Amino acid sequence: MEDSFPEVVSARSCPSETNKKRSSILACLLLLITCSLLGTILGLKISQRNELRDKILDYGTYRKFGIISDIHLDVTAAPLYCSENRTYSMEPTDFGSDNCDSTLNFTDLSIRSLTEKLTKLKNSQFILVLGDFNDHRYNKTMKKPTLETFRVITEIFAAHLTSVSRIPVYPTLGNDDSPDINYQEAAHPGDFYRNVWVHFRRLIGGSSPSVEDEPFLTGGYYKVQHSSKLWIISLNTVSFSFHSQLNETKKLAQLEWLTETLEGVRLSGGSAIIIGHIPPGISTFEVAMTPGSLTSMSWKEEYIVRFNDIIRAEDDIIRGMYFGHHHAQSWFVKGSEGGDGDSSGSEDNSDGDSNGISESSDSSDSKGRDSATSPPQIRGGGYISYFSAPAISPVYRNNPAFQVVVVAPTTWYPVDIITYSANLDFYLRVGSPPRFNFEMSLKEKYFRLPKRYKDIELTPDFLRQLTYRITDFGDLMEVYSHHVVSLLQLKNLPGVSPYQLYCTMTTNLKVELEDCLERYGYRPIF
């Protein structure tokens, strides 16, 4: 791993006294040049090694799309916004710091890396930008330059997606994209949405007739027909946030629009991918940062229930849901409200299933736990799933990362998610421009599935059965821990046991999380 390389001698280690001999100065300069060259060589070797390991190569002509989220570009003058009450006096053209928001140069490098990756691959379809274009700064004395950030990022995409390689970019709004107060609608929403829509329209594809203007101009959400059989539905999830003070009429209007939109997709014989910024359900980010706080709910619970009801009613046409906000790669699979599945004990224990994953029908599992304390195996009927994407901004000391989703040739269900990350701290230390290298395949890293599972779709049911294995195999926690360390997501995902992790990922509401933790012998965290 890149982190294993030794510290590089910095300029401060050079002799600075005027009475040093010239030979010592030359020796120091030579050492610095050597270290710089070594850093560049090591970076190239790492990139070459990762290209050979890149699991995207296994998928040939499968359809693919990119995901980039939580860019948090700081377009203001130095110093950058940084976490931990730290400031960083750095020009926006530099690559930044590992606990600050993204500089202009690093944002350009990140978008260029993703677009170059997609243009080299066969059958790349589009890019999803999952919100939080803007930095975390909120200054009462200075108007946040939100629209300037949208303009700059739009220009960067335009520069790297030429007419030859042009693929559409489908964006969504995040909680930090408000020009006034975090999580709140703009003071003049009509003007704000109209100005943002100029840039979003350009990202989507200019005057494309397949996208309606009105929903975004009134509420910040939209739908677009990507192809004859696929629709992209972009939600303004900030409206449903626990922190949002938007009136209920506007919130319900968006849910009614979602219902009507999905019904229209069904009538057209198509399918849909849903995107947004803030995921519904339990916030692993908030649980990690503020344990015991009610803000561990990403959405207000009443809207989680309503949303889940809408999704379950149309689950056979939904081909995936993708969100950002957590600054951490993860996935979630939810059962019906009231528990993480049918806890009555009436599960189907027949041997095997169509996906080749089965649970033992004995009264105890392989570790001797009574099956009454284990979630039942349920095939279909009520499970929904969604994925959260890693962040580009390294503000919480996470390694910046983006993803490429591989979808099934005939359905648009995901079959794998490939993550590429940049060990920013390493590249800054060796004085080399950061590189995004292959980090992991979701199927291989989390679930260690053999190649015969390559074509298996990550449907909600299959993903749920894989998720349950976290409670059943000790080595799965080791895999998860390795992922947390490799992407430096320690601050964004709680350092929990497999059971606590399972409860966070499979429950919808606060009371369900409490019940799940109690079932496994843990005191509720609320």
Brief synopsis:
This protein is an alpha/beta fold and 526 residues long. It has helices at residues 22-53, 104-120, 146-160, 189-204, 214-219, 248-267, 284-289, 301-313, 424-430, 442-447, 460-468, 474-486, 498-506, 510-519; strands at residues 63-68, 80-81, 87-88, 124-129, 169-171, 222-227, 230-234, 271-275, 318-323, 330-334, 384-388, 401-407, 414-421, 437-441.
What keyword list fits this structure?
526 residues, six-stranded mixed beta sheet, 14 helices, 13% strand, disordered N terminus
Description:
With 526 residues, this protein is an alpha/beta fold. The chain contains 14 helices and 14 strands. It has helices at residues 22-53, 104-120, 146-160, 189-204, 214-219, 248-267, 284-289, 301-313, 424-430, 442-447, 460-468, 474-486, 498-506, 510-519, and strands at residues 63-68, 80-81, 87-88, 124-129, 169-171, 222-227, 230-234, 271-275, 318-323, 330-334, 384-388, 401-407, 414-421, 437-441. The strands form three sheets. Strands 5-4-1-12-13-14 form a six-stranded mixed beta sheet. A six-stranded mixed beta sheet has the order 6-7-8-9-11-10, sandwiched between helices. A two-stranded antiparallel sheet has the order 2-3. Strand 6 and strand 7 form a beta hairpin. Helix 3 packs parallel to helix 4 (189-204). The two termini are 37 Å apart.
